[in-house]
């Protein structure tokens, strides 16, 4: 394990229970537990949870590194000295600050019904601890949260806010108990813990069943009629009323999407809530209904994100919607999910879309592990899933994406609740029977980005002296400091040095199967 000299670390393995206890100087160490996977989870309760704490920028001439690894390091911090001369490392990563790309919007996760249920299943102290881990300056400082509009599969029942048939004026529109008693109070707590306003994204899974061609919330079905018709106008007004109702609780939204995975309700007989749209229907609904309704409401500054579906649909989806000036004038960004990324090269999808429409931001709106039938559900301590997260985030960032959102903020040991039994993994897993929660390796993958890439940070170029196993991305933060994130998915340690012409050479090394963040002040 790298960096053991900076603090005392004792590892006690209790084979019969599968527990590993890490004890180190200070009160913020990881209470590590080993289950059946290849790495550990960190167990937290009402009185204890590991934390990286507030990060202090080192003086010019020094740098700080944060290491997370399969071997068990979790944001382990070390300080290094910048050198005037090269170390002679075979791999040199040169910062190229004159190559400037996108600015960061942020990182976060989703406050689903299931996430809220799991958080609220804990004691008050453990609830606070969990939210602090995500949103406070001592935690990993999430600044974005996706909020489903009414139910999704990660709910315990099917519902919308306007289930009265024929209520085109939405006179009976009302938030659900899941909003008023669960999600809203937790969002308010999260906002209170965050030192800056959270950027909330609203996404709807389905319109009310009576508006749909199939008369059901799930399955293959779209809105009745055509864009400009009464169903499409009522559905647009539904969005406005959602924003109004949440505003009554002092919660405002940075953005809304045009609907979760529109192809799921258009192309397949989906097993849970879905609303089908073709890109042409989405284009016309934006131009005729949603765009004008939002523009004439008090929420005209709310960002509109199209697609909210797999990136393999790009650039085609963007071309259909954004080539129409009447629709494009209401759009700000394009949301992508990660589920089929291995079949959709980032440069062909994200890169091409950015080149065609550089004025529209790209944003990763959903990702989770454990969704595939070949690798289903919760895996406590899976390092491979942590690497999958880090690889996808780096690839997205290097192809103009401005932020990346995990799916459920918390799930139970079974990967739910989920009424459709679509159980998946989460970065925090709750065991309410013991009043504890486990921070998965993916939690720390997210942390290496969310903690250090502040909103407004700008990606800059990097040049690598030779091909290696390392995957990298670099940013200049608003205060002028630099961040380099390095992923090593190989079985061998890779020594390297970073060359920043304003300060010198930063000697470092990436252990096998590790994620490393370097932070330094530029003169």
UniProtKB/TrEMBL annotation:
GO molecular function, one term: signaling receptor binding
Domain Glycosyl hydrolase family 30 beta sandwich, residue spans: 456-518
GO BP annotations listed: autophagy; cholesterol metabolic process; glucosylceramide catabolic process; lysosome organization; negative regulation of macromolecule metabolic process; neuron cellular homeostasis; protein catabolic process; regulation of macroautophagy
Major location (coarse): membrane
Reaction equations catalysed: a beta-D-glucosyl-(1<->1')-N-acylsphing-4-enine + cholesterol = cholesteryl 3-beta-D-glucoside + an N-acylsphing-4-enine; 1-(beta-D-galactosyl)-N-dodecanoylsphing-4-enine + cholesterol = cholesteryl 3-beta-D-galactoside + N-dodecanoylsphing-4-enine; a beta-D-galactosyl-(1<->1')-N-acylsphing-4-enine + H2O = an N-acylsphing-4-enine + D-galactose; beta-D-glucosyl-(1<->1')-N-(15Z-tetracosenoyl)-sphing-4-enine + cholesterol = N-(15Z-tetracosenoyl)-sphing-4-enine + cholesteryl 3-beta-D-glucoside
Listed pathway(s): Steroid metabolism; cholesterol metabolism; Sphingolipid metabolism; Lipid metabolism
Keyword list, A-Z: Glycosidase, Hydrolase, Lipid metabolism, Signal, Sphingolipid metabolism
The Glycosyl hydrolase family 30 TIM-barrel domain, residue ranges: 104-453
Subcellular location: Lysosome membrane
Keyword Lipid metabolism: yes
Membrane topology type: Peripheral membrane protein
GO CC terms of this entry: lysosomal membrane
Gene3D superfamilies: Glycosidases
EC number(s) recorded for this UniProt protein: 3.2.1.45
Family per similarity comment: Belongs to the glycosyl hydrolase 30 family.
Official protein name in the record: Glucosylceramidase
Organism expressing this protein natively: Astyanax mexicanus (Blind cave fish)
Lineage: Eukaryota, Metazoa, Chordata, Craniata, Vertebrata
């Amino acid at each position: 394990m790298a960096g053991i000299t900076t603090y005392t670390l004792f590892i006690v393995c209790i084979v019969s229970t599968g527990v590993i206890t890490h004890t180190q100087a200070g009160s913020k160490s990881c209470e590590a537990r080993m289950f059946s996977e290849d790495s550990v989870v960190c167990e937290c309760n009402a009185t204890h949870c590991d934390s990286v704490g507030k990060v202090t920028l080192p003086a010019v001439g020094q740098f700080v590194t944060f290491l997370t690894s399969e071997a068990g390091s979790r944001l382990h911090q070390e300080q290094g000295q910048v050198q005037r001369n090269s170390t002679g490392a075979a791999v040199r990563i040169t910062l190229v600050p004159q190559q400037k790309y996108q600015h960061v919007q942020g990182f976060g996760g989703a406050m689903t019904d299931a996430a809220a249920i799991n958080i609220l299943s804990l004691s008050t102290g453990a609830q606070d601890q969990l939210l602090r881990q995500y949103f406070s300056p001592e935690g990993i400082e999430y600044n974005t949260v996706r909020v489903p509009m009414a139910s999704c599969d990660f709910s315990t029942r099917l519902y919308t806010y306007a289930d009265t048939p024929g209520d085109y004026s939405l006179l009976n529109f009302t938030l659900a108990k899941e909003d008023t008693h669960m999600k809203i109070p937790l969002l308010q707590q999260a906002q209170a813990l965050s030192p800056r306003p959270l950027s909330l994204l609203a996404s709807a899974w389905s319109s009310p069943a009576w508006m749909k061609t199939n008369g059901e919330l799930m399955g293959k079905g779209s809105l009745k009629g055509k864009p400009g018709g009464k169903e499409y106008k009522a559905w647009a007004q539904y969005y406005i009323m959602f924003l109004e109702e949440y505003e009554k609780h002092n919660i405002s939204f940075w953005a809304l999407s045009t609907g979760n995975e529109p192809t799921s309700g258009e192309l397949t007989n989906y097993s849970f809530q879905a609303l089908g749209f073709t890109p042409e229907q989405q284009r016309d609904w934006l131009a005729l209904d949603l765009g004008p309704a939002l523009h004439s409401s008090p929420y005209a500054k709310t960002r509109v994100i199209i697609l909210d579906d797999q990136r393999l649909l790009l650039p085609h989806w963007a071309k259909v919607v954004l080539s129409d000036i009447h629709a494009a004038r209401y759009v700000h960004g394009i949301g992508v999910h990660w589920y089929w990324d291995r079949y959709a090269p980032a440069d062909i999808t994200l890169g091409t879309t950015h080149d065609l429409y550089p004025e529209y931001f790209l944003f990763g709106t959903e990702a989770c592990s454990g969704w595939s039938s070949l690798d289903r559900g919760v895996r406590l301590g899976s390092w491979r899933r942590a690497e999958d997260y880090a690889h996808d985030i780096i690839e997205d960032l290097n192809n103009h994406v401005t932020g990346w959102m995990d799916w459920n903020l918390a799930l139970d040991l079974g990967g739910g609740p989920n009424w459709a039994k679509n159980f998946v993994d989460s970065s925090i897993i709750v065991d309410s029977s013991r009043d504890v929660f486990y921070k998965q390796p993916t939690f720390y993958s997210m942390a290496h980005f969310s903690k250090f890439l502040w909103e407004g940070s700008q990606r800059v170029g990097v040049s690598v002296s030779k091909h290696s196993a390392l995957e990298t991305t670099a940013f200049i933060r608003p205060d002028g400091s630099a961040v380099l994130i390095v992923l090593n998915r190989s079985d061998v340690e890779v020594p390297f040095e970073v060359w920043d012409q304003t300060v010198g050479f930063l000697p470092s090394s990436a252990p096998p199967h590790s994620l490393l963040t370097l932070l330094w002040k530029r003169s």
